Amino acid sequence: MMIPVRCFSCGQVVGDRWAEFKERTQSKKEDPGAVLDSMHVTRYCCRRMLISHVDLIDDVINYSRK
Question: What gap in Å lies between CA 45 and CA 60, rounded to an integer?
Answer without folding.
Answer: 26
